[in-house]
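**User:**
Make up any protein.

**Assistant:**
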Amino acid sequence: MSRCCTALLSTVLCLSGCAPSIGKVSGQVMFDGKPLPGGRVTFRPADPGANATSAELDEEGRFSVTLPCGDVTVSVDNRELAPRTRGPAPNVPVNIPPELQGKFSPRGGGRGSTTTPGSPRYREIPGKYYNGDTSGLKFTVKTGEQTETVTLTGQP
């Protein structure tokens, strides 16, 4: 009977001690002193066994995530909000009058490249922030709740 109790007690202690500590991190991403109004912030734990966690930024650059405790590197990417350039429409005959070119393009845009508007929340940021290995952004997640300001600077 005492072996059974010892094994059960050991299992309970291991389970309570083996669970990773977590912290709730909230904060704001700032670019040149102003909130970054859109994009995604990603936190990659130094522990290779832990998964990266991303959060979408609101209009004021705010985010909130739950992360395992320990060191994390941070990246910020907002390219999905940028204007997009499309190339010429496929299968458009080369020598047709401009007034007929729209009939060959599914969007009626003719042969030239076009730019689709991006989000009004887009702000161009330096490319080094797209990757945690080059961003230079990191901090340590502690148990409980904490607030972090992620500061971006520089010319895009």
Remarks:
- The chain has a mean pLDDT of 82.
